[in-house]
Amino acid sequence: MNFDPRYSGRNFTSVGTRPIRPDGVDKVTGRARYGADFNMAGQLVGRVLRSPHAHATIRKIDTSKAEKLPGVKAVITAADLPDLTDGDAAMYDILDNCMARKKALYDGHAVAAVAAVDARIARQALKLIEVDYEVLPHVTDVDEAMKHTAPLLNDAIFTEGLEEKPVKPSNVTKRTQYGHGDIHEGFGQADFVVERSFKTEQTHQGYIEPHACVANVSSDGTADLWVCTQGHFVYRQHCAQLLGMEASKLRVTSSEIGGGFGGKTHVWAEPVALALSRKAGRPVKLVMTRDEVFRASGPTSATSIDVKIGARKDGTITAAEATLRYSCGPYAGMWAEIGAMTAFACYRLENVKTVGYEVLVNRPKTAAYRAPSAPMAAFAVESAIDELAKEIDMDPVEFRIRNAAQEGTRSSYGPVYGPIGIGPTLEAAKNHPHMKAPLGKNQGRGMACGFWFNFGGQTCTDLNIGMDGSVSLAVGTVDVGGSRASLSLVAAEELGIAYEQVKAVVADTSSLGYNDMTDGSRGTFSSSMATISAARNAIKVLRERAAQMWDISVDDVAWEQGHAVAKGEKHGNLGKLSLKEIAAESGKTGGPIAGHSELVADGAGVSFATHICDIEVDPETGATKVLRYTVVQDAGKAVHPTYVEGQYQGGAAQGIGWALNEEYIYGKDGRLQNAGFLDYRIPVCSDLPMIDTQILEIPNPNHPYGVRGVGETSIVPPLAAIANAVSNAAGVRMTHIPMSPPRILAAIEAERAG
Amino acid sequence: MAGVAVSTTINGDNFEYLCQPDETLLDVLRDRLGLTGAKEGCGTGDCGACSIILDDRLVCSCLVLGAEAEGRRVETVEGMAHGDRLHPLQQKFLEHAALQCGICTPGFLIAAKDLLAKNPDPTEEEIRFGLAGNLCRCTGYDKIVRAVQDAASVMKGA
Fold this sequence. Notes:
The structure holds two protein chains of two kinds. By secondary structure, chain A is of the alpha+beta class. Chain A has 21 helices and 27 strands.
């Protein structure tokens, strides 16, 4: 049956309410099982040996002493993970990142692994592995890595996207360009031009749960993997490809996930655990330490960005340009490209040009982090927008409203927008009481806007109706923050039954068709679309069964508020049949009742937010305090508003940490200096105020209920909003994130010195 | 290494176990006793996900040795509910959606229980500083603080 995903206005009964989540009790009683909470009989402990060097050729690895240690059951190196990627460059990079092949490319790069009967023996075994390194010159700074004199990470890389094919290899893997119009003409029309350079440091997603998995490879070639992941189907594909298995023979079960934010979309330890299990012939549990999480798993890019924006006296932007350089770690990525696409997406521009450069550095492989690449671009652009508003002597909100993109605007990255929320979020911010609240001494207010694409993707969902009329909903998108509650609400809404009658679970990879992972803010967007489709298919069956029970034509049976209703005067005496009554008879009317759905959830509506914040700066120390914070964001339709608020608040808090504190600090030796939560300080409870939220609902025309993804956009504006607030409080433009006390103090002192 | 014999009380029940002298109480709870409610987020006492109460004192169980539990009273998240009746903090965490991923939740619940035992009527600031040893990356703490405020008012009335 063809499914029509278009938005149709309706009055909601369940959607928009705030029930308790179905996985809640297990999570407050300690019963919920996360990655490291699972064990198998006879399991071994896996540990990984990591390079202490930022850049080194691996001459030789001698594992013989480790193998002889009693209690050691397997030792592996890259030789145990042969290259089966068959020319797939991206998969080869994943393989090389899981276990270094010829060179160690960053401090923390895996070079060998062991499986032993307990953790102590595993640790001892690591010390017995002898690696002969030839240490090479390294580079960790994105601007330094672009210089011709920089050490090369990979001499087979020649910059793509240049007009002429380069003759020399480079750390720049690719140049990309977006935009339209003629910026030279545009800048010619400008009365005011602001031009600035910005830098942002590398941050980590900072999920509290380290990566953890249990792998069990059987001698018959089948395997099970229990793992904390944002996408168990993707993990299955990647692991199966890297280990030379058929995907269907590897069953992956996603545990409860203790935070991911993009960082659990990539395999690291899982292929290693499977290879260890295969070699040892026993289950292997592999859990990263926090030190390993920082040194070897998913940080975001460090960036260096130049922005130039011109406007007329009346406040119309005439041209905008940005050059964005993003670090990718040691492997090619498309991080600068995403930055180049998102940089000016909030605005209606005649002339715009953005250029992105992907830059290799001796740091861990860059991974997605919540709206990846967008916060840094927004920091640069929204800072320059604020500065330009000041030059024109226009209110920064008014200036943005005047230039905001609208329905029909051709975005800076190409597509033409449908109905969007940038204008409404700006109007709501303008009218918010926060905007008019008084400020004290050394306090400043800042605001900024943010954009994120959102993603739909492949989705498969099963809805099964039990004989007692209860409903099991099996989805394939991992629940990272309450989506089982939202999807239960959607199933209840569509079927016309109570929320409590539905139980949603995340099914394993052998129980459901392929699902893309929970990224791109797609969990609730795509799986709710698939749930609606599955429910409508189930309703079709329910109507057929009711028709059979009544012995009338199915065309005369409608589905209303959880009941089959016979239509037409001739059926006036038939009354109604509830879902429960139809389910109870299912054994006699054709067997189990179910609805299935397989679809590609196209049309994820783009998402916009505007944030406002007040910051106090201590001019003597450069210390900051966040006094007040407000998030305004378009949700399309908030399915479970409490969890939508939670996404807004959580993204803002991560952005606050990024803006003020968090950064990877590398020594001259190329080693990470702060691989722990003490020295890499994420915001704690006493650092933050309450985070106020305002949910706008501008329906997404491509979803039956108007839903848009809400998870990521909230981290896009904070860097800029806080930078604008700090700049207003301190009286000096801040251009380097994080704005730690020493950086703020240095900026204040430089300003005083003139 | 020879094991250390330990006799202790966990959530009111007597336990006896053997552990290695260098083994943390967190590892004992999780790996030997199957009490996986306390989580290891860092292993260095920075994140609070392994918070437990040891003789009325809030501690990170990753910084306590298993052998140190000898003769003492250990409280973990598994002991907070009475049968199927949740502790008011657990109930309020659910009602306020004070968890998203939930990995930090056991630690926050234990830390909040300890806070309210010592200060039944805390201000927002006292709650924020009282829970500053527990990291949450999902919520921005807003709903956690509100849940603790609400639980405090319920527990005062009880």
